[in-house]
TrEMBL record:
Superkingdom of this protein's organism: Bacteria
Keywords on record: Cell membrane, Membrane, Transmembrane, Transmembrane helix, Transport
Family that this chain belongs to: Belongs to the binding-protein-dependent transport system permease family. FecCD subfamily.
Protein name (record): ABC transporter permease
Compartment(s) of residence: Cell membrane
Length: 343
């Protein structure tokens, strides 16, 4: 019997309901993309957007294609990657607080990139991506190793505490490296806030293979995550190779986080908020939860980018700041839930 049939939450979300939500989410994603292209410091009408898509030489149409379209694509890719990575991390650790930011993965990726820039003269998007993935992987391994120490192994609470400590330490090291380097301080600090402004196709393309690999590994881990939700012993009894299932899913999440952080900087709370919202829509079955987390994460980050352009006109607010405003209250709400207090 599938995990969704055994769980009460699964019975509340039938196939028809999930398909209806899927259509609604896809429509909302298309609408968010259209609004993102049309809204900014200057409004763009639908004819101008169509001119830009068709390659007309109008100046405003050229701006739409050259600036807003790649920015919208990057927001969708980054939001989808972070939402999916958050759902995978929560499944791997069985921790409702798991998030690339809270577990220190984004901070580890950011620290690795800053070390590469400051000490090794790192340049180029592809080099940033490899370095960020290495930093994200080392941070994830370190957090899991520290969280596994002591009695009871890697409990959700110990992983959250280890991740928070790692994130603070990595951020402190990053600041210590950047402070005496005035030549890179401005660019690094702006990147650390997290944003999708200034996106170009040349910057996006090198990240695509890593994001696609992370997407494939994460979606392929859905059945294993369903079994891991039953506990390691039960999963092993049902034929799952627990260590391999956990490692494969974690690798997918690391690829997604590293690729996103390299190009956008550390963006927090998307991976925390999105999985909880998606569970309300489609239940706990990861075969549905993971694709929905990717789509909903894309919508959330596009919407946050749009909001950042509106509230600070004629300037802009970076998307990392907007997601922090949205995610912090959700984080407090999750912590206050009875289930989390009993971890």
């Amino acid at each position: 019997m599938a995990a969704e049939d055994a769980a009460p939450a699964g019975r509340r979300h039938g196939r028809r309901g999930r398909l209806a939500w899927l259509l609604a989410v896809l429509a909302l994603l298309a609408a968010a993309g259209g609004v993102s292209i049309g809204v900014g410091t200057r409004e763009v009408s639908l004819p101008d957007i169509l001119n830009g898509v068709q390659g007309r030489t109008d100046t405003l149409a050229e701006a739409v294609v050259a600036v807003r379209v790649p920015r919208t694509i990057l927001a969708a890719l980054a939001g989808g990657a972070l939402g999916l990575a958050g759902a995978v991390m929560q499944g791997v650790t069985r921790n409702p607080l798991a998030d690339p930011g809270i577990l220190g993965v984004n901070a580890g990726a950011g620290l690795a990139v800053v070390i590469g820039i400051a000490w090794f003269g790192l340049t180029g998007t592809l080099a940033f991506v490899w370095t960020a993935i290495l930093g994200a992987g080392l941070a994830a391994a370190f957090v899991y190793a520290v969280g596994s120490l002591g009695r009871g192994g890697a409990t959700p609470l110990k992983l959250a505490l280890a991740g928070a400590a790692t994130s603070i330490a990595a951020s402190s090291f990053t600041t210590a490296i950047v402070l005496p380097r005035g030549d890179i301080a401005g660019g690094v600090r702006s990147w650390q806030v997290g944003g999708v402004g200034g996106a170009t196709y040349d910057a996006i393309l090198p990240c695509l293979p890593f994001l696609l690999a992370g997407l494939s590994l994460s979606l392929a881990s859905a059945r294993g995550l369903n079994l891991l939700a039953l506990g390691d012993e039960a999963a092993a009894g049902l034929g799952a190779r627990v260590a391999w299932a956990r490692a494969g899913a974690a690798l997918g999440a690391v690829l997604l986080c590293g690729g996103t952080t390299a190009i956008c900087g550390p963006i927090g709370f998307v991976g925390l908020v999105v999985p909880h919202l998606c569970r309300l829509l489609v239940g706990v079955d990861h075969r549905w939860l993971l694709p929905f987390a990717a789509l909903t994460g894309a919508i959330l980050l596009i919407a946050a980018d749009i909001l950042g352009r509106i509230v600070a006109r004629p300037s802009e607010m970076d998307v990392g700041i907007v997601t922090a405003f949205v995610g912090a209250p959700v984080f407090v709400w999750i912590v206050r839930q009875r289930r989390v207090r009993e971890l």
